[in-house]
Amino acid sequence: MAPPVPESILKKRKRDEQWAKKKSEALAIAKTKAKENRKVIFKRAEQYVKEYRTQELDLIRARRDAKKAGSFFVEPEPKLAFVIRLRGINDMHPKIKKILQLLRLRQINNGVFLKINKATLMMLRRVEPYVMWGYPNLKTVKELVYKRGFGKVGKGKSRIPLTDNSVVEKELGAKGIICVEDLIHEIYTVGPNFKAANCFLYPFKLSAPLGGLTKKRTHFIEGGDAGCREDKINALVRRMN
Length: 241
What we know:
Elements: H1 7-69, E1 80-85, H2 94-102, E2 110-115, H3 118-127, E3 131-134, H4 138-148, E4 150-153, E5 158-161, H5 165-172, H6 180-188, H7 194-200, E6 204-205, E7 227-228, H8 233-240
Helix pairs in contact: 4-6
């Protein structure tokens, strides 16, 4: 006759079986959800490509029409800026230090996206000798998010790389942002949930630019590096990314 199995072992077996069942059910649900999400993400990505292409063609058409009519075409005002910290804290006024903290630029070569409005322009004017900034294009936004994008995840705001759409969905799903393409679209178009999307992203830690800088203490207009460089920021980001 086989010896009786202790009650504690029987309980453990039962508990392990329940856990295994729950785990397999959760995996099946997650798999089904991921399959549905893939279809939605693919459709959204196609829609965004179409939207970007239409915007580009509309701009080209408007420029041609203006040229044909012999008038001037006023380019649409940029809504998005990308700001990179240029200098350290030597000889820095406390107010400027505070503004850089508000902009989340705590280290040299850190970069952040910024919505352009009166308040942010005034802040940028104050810190201009300490930053390089300009207007990023779609390619720059995509490259930054895909290559150097890290998100704040969980209560501890852990710095997690954006290698999976589930990371984005977990934090921004309530805002309708379920994948990296949604995040890029929200940032680039400065959509209604721009603040949440931008706060979710950690400041980008860029490398020193390939080929070095010219003059840190001189404005870009005067042949240096500091201040606004408009669309020429894209070439700089390529060298730093």
